[in-house]
Specification:
Length: 296
């Protein structure tokens, strides 16, 4: 029950997936002249708290469903390893999501009742991913929901709480962030497909096989890089190409995922998370530097 145990249960390496869309959304808000520090910080706090609550829920419910066993290839889970009891983790879920609701109260006062809808759906998805009568992650729907909530919902929601509107400039970045975040999940599911199948967790990697998962990973990564190129062709905004600077990382990752399997894919998880962070930072920088500027 030490702080170190709880910090591990947060899965701090995954929290970048909550940080990236808020960073990009805030940069989009800045690019159209409506950056607001208070809502931006609150959006980040809410996103991180929902991510922590979701991680806690996955830890608890994957253990209860048998998806986390002693043969797990990924990082240690708190409940499965006995570091935290199911009761303690339940309390953690309530505290994390409850704190997110408190932050949401401030955002509702700032941006209106739409934030209630966004927050409620985000928390519901975080729980329903592994819990309930039809857990999303157990029925091949995890990829869709991760893409939606870590891409369009998180990025456009961040823009909305600052601008009270969603400018068109934010749509392509939202899709790119969603694609790279989903790529992290794909690697996770590719690694765990054998244990997931044994536990009845029917991810796309289980339903459609490892070849599909590797093709999906490639499509998501390359699609994310194609979107800034599309933006340049559409708007002649050269700064949108900044994320291409980390394309060599993406190519190396594609090659690694294509040939590796099992526990070796833990390295691919870390590399894809690093790619997401670097890509998002460059994407955000391009939005800020390119505001009101174009080629020529």
């Amino acid at each position: 029950m030490s702080l170190a145990v709880w910090w591990s249960a947060f899965r701090p390496a995954t929290l970048w997936a909550a940080f990236a869309p808020v960073l990009v959304g805030t940069a989009c808000a800045q690019s159209v002249g409506c950056f607001a520090l208070g809502p931006a910080v609150a959006a980040l706090a809410g996103a991180v708290l929902i991510q922590i609550g979701t991680n806690f829920a996955n830890d608890l419910f994957d253990f209860e469903k048998g998806a986390d066993s002693v043969d797990r290839l990924g990082p240690r889970r708190a409940v499965q390893s006995g570091l935290l009891s199911p009761r303690a983790m339940t309390v953690g879920i309530v505290v994390a999501f409850g704190s997110a609701v408190l932050v949401g109260g401030y955002l509702v006062a700032i941006a209106g009742v739409w934030i209630v809808v966004i927050g409620a759906l985000s928390i519901a998805a975080g729980i329903a991913y592994t819990a309930g009568p039809y857990p999303l992650g157990y029925h091949g729907l995890g990829d869709v929901f991760v893409f939606g909530f870590f891409g369009p919902v998180a990025v456009l929601g961040t823009v909305f709480v600052q601008c009270r509107a969603v400018p068109a400039v934010a749509v392509s970045p939202a899709l790119a962030v969603g694609a790279l975040t989903t790529a992290i999940l794909v690697v996770n599911n590719l690694r765990d497909r054998a244990s997931d199948a044994a536990a009845g967790k029917r991810t796309l990697a289980v339903l459609l096989g490892p070849r599909f998962a590797r093709v999906e990973y490639g499509a998501l990564v390359l699609g994310a890089f194609a979107l800034p190129v599309f933006d340049v062709l559409r708007s002649a905004q050269a700064w949108s190409l900044l994320p291409v600077l980390v394309l060599p990382w993406a190519v190396a990752g594609l090659r690694f995922v294509a040939r590796e399997d099992g526990a070796r894919l833990n390295l691919a998880l870390a590399r894809t998370a690093r790619l997401l962070l670097a890509f998002s930072a460059l994407l955000a920088l391009g939005q800020v530097l390119g505001a009101g500027r174009s080629i020529g």
